[in-house]
Amino acid sequence: MNGECRVCGGVVEEFIDLGRQPSANAFPLPEQVGGEFLFRLAAGACGRCSMVQLLEEVPQTVRYHEGYRYRASGSKGHRRHFEEDARRFLRDELTGPGAFIVEIGCNDGVMLSTVADAGVAHLGVEPSANVADEARAKGVSVLNAFFDEETAAAVRAEHGPAKVVFGANTICHIAHIRSVFRGVGALLAPGGVFVFEEPYLGTVLEQGAFDQIYDEHVFYFSVTSVAAMAERFGFELVEAEPIPLHGGEIRYTVARAGERPVGGSVRRFLAEERERGLSSPEALRRFGDNVRQVRDDLLALLRELRADGKRVVGYGAPGKATTITNFCGIGTDLVPFVCDSTPDKQGRLVPGSHLPVRPPEAFSDPYPDYALLFAWNHAEEIMAKEQGFRHSGGRWIRYVPTVTVD
User: May I ask which residue range the UniProt record assigns to the signal sequence (predicted)?
Assistant: First the structure.
């Protein structure tokens, strides 16, 4: 099944179907089982502009609401990263008169709280009321709304132009991307920049990280597709910087065409992606084949461990856990529960697969024989924290890029 590109209107050719899936961060209570929203989780690539995207869109009001459960500040590494982002903006862009930054999807204020502490004008545009309130509690100015052309015009009318428009793990979530770019164009001051950090298609394909595909991630950016998208709306991609967040992302810096020089990083990425055939039909088909192999290998391992009487517990309940447990058919017969440090998720169930989410203390009461690491992008931080599990003889199961036990 093919679709129409949300960026350029070209034909999007499907390359992977991960089956019927719920909204990844819905996390129902046990008594709510049975009423979950389901959709077909499939992705394709545009033959014209190369943008990889979901074929079916989940309404944004289903994904972002007053019960939204993701917290950007939940990881020490994330807090450190976004504080560095803020300090870089304060040093390089938010100087002199008219310094003003707008963040699209500010979540719980993990980045803007540093800007607020510096006394610099700012505004977070956050559609989920509960996390918007948490940001306000940190001293962050927040508008509870979805970002689009109309919102941007209202922000400019009230606050003036922005020197920086920023988004982290949010721009790829917004299906109405044309309205986003028109809004940025209306809001951005002359010489200003639009900076966004998003999962990188190259990393997703290289790592076989198919669990990065879920309802919130509408787009899967490459430097090639972002450069083409920017040009379509009168902008120019001027920098493309790799960052380690979420297993490997790119920080894209976009400016109005001709306002800033295009850095060598963009040219290097474009050449490398051409050479790799990054979003070619062949590369995407290979990715799909690898995903199915990981599913088969992981299920075989979990069934073997169950037959041997071994106990496996899930570690971390990010949105990625929804994709892999539903695609693989992992239920409580194989993984009885998942431990996660997010209070709002505890006592709830992983969407679709309905694995109970328990607090971190349950992990060591007693330690399991194996831990299935759903939060693999935080592996270093987690393993340093869980030395007791290793000392007890416990072993970690990972599935990115292949199924391994260590």
Answer: none
